[in-house]
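Saturday, quiet lab. Running sequence design on the structure tokens for the scaffold JK sent over.
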């Protein structure tokens, strides 16, 4: 990380789908220049997604990242084993990763979604009831990728056809009665509890500041399940469709280009603003 007193240390937290990754192709090609600039500047990129660890770990390797990652809407944080200062309350995921559990367990969520459907009379279809073919049809993922998307710990994505605002309010009320939350992503609604992206990012901010108290943080996202993360950022950046724009968020920068192209432009501007582009 940069050590110059004239170059503020920076960490970038980013959503994946429709943010760093193209909404349809799941490619980060259009963000490649900014990714390379971050690597050159020593700016850590922390992936924060509704995706599972099984989906995110290969991308983490492909991008040659050394930072933690946040999976399943803040349900857990994964720390590469080679990092120093791994929190003591982590458990060993495998030989390469440690896991910090934050969210409600998956079986509890599956049970709760079934109860909520019966209680409200609203037809809901969760990932747990879908096979890989169905997941692939809804997401555009291959069957192999869809299998990884079903390896879940703390977050149940679901679809609810023709959901009205009144229906959404009923679902949220039923979830809240169970100390759970419903948030929206790009393609799905998500049932989760005990944590969210903002809670996980706040923990990682403290972790980074324990190593460098002058650290500053950026956050990039495109939908309402990113709002809690953006609220934690010194530099919140929205790269989604204007119809999903948060109603109010201090210092929010809104990209006029969505997805990875907007990510690329805004991150390059941020690096320049923070003194990394000199």
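Result came back. Writing it out in full:
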């Amino acid at each position: 990380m940069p050590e110059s007193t004239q170059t503020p240390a920076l960490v970038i937290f980013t959503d994946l789908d429709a943010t760093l990754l193209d909404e349809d192709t799941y490619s980060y090609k259009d963000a490649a220049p900014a990714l390379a600039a971050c690597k050159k500047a020593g700016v850590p990129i922390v992936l924060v997604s509704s995706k599972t660890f099984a989906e995110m770990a290969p991308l983490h390797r492909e991008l040659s990242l050394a930072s933690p990652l946040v999976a399943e809407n803040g349900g857990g944080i994964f720390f590469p084993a080679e990092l120093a200062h791994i929190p003591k309350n982590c458990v060993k995921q495998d030989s390469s990763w440690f896991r910090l559990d934050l969210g409600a367990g998956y079986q509890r969520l599956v049970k709760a979604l079934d109860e909520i459907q019966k209680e409200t009379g609203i037809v809901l279809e969760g990932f747990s009831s879908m096979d890989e073919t169905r997941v692939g049809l809804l997401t555009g993922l291959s069957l192999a990728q869809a299998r990884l998307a079903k390896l879940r710990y703390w977050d149940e994505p679901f679809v609810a056809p023709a959901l009205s605002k009144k229906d959404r309010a009923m679902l949220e009320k039923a979830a809240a009665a169970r100390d759970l939350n419903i948030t929206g992503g790009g393609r799905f609604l998500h049932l989760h509890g005990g944590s969210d992206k903002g809670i996980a990012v706040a923990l990682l901010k403290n972790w980074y500041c324990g190593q460098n108290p002058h650290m500053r943080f950026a956050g990039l996202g495109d939908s309402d399940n990113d709002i809690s993360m953006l609220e934690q950022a010194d530099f919140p950046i929205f790269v989604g469709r204007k119809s999903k724009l948060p109603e109010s968020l201090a210092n929010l920068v809104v990209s006029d280009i969505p997805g990875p192209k907007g990510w690329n432009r805004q991150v390059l501007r941020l690096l320049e603003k923070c003194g990394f582009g000199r």
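Notes for JK: The CA atoms of residues 108 and 138 lie 24 Å apart. The domain at 106-192 is CATH 3.30.980.20 (Threonyl-tRNA Synthetase; Chain A, domain 2). Ask whether to fix the surface positions before the next round.
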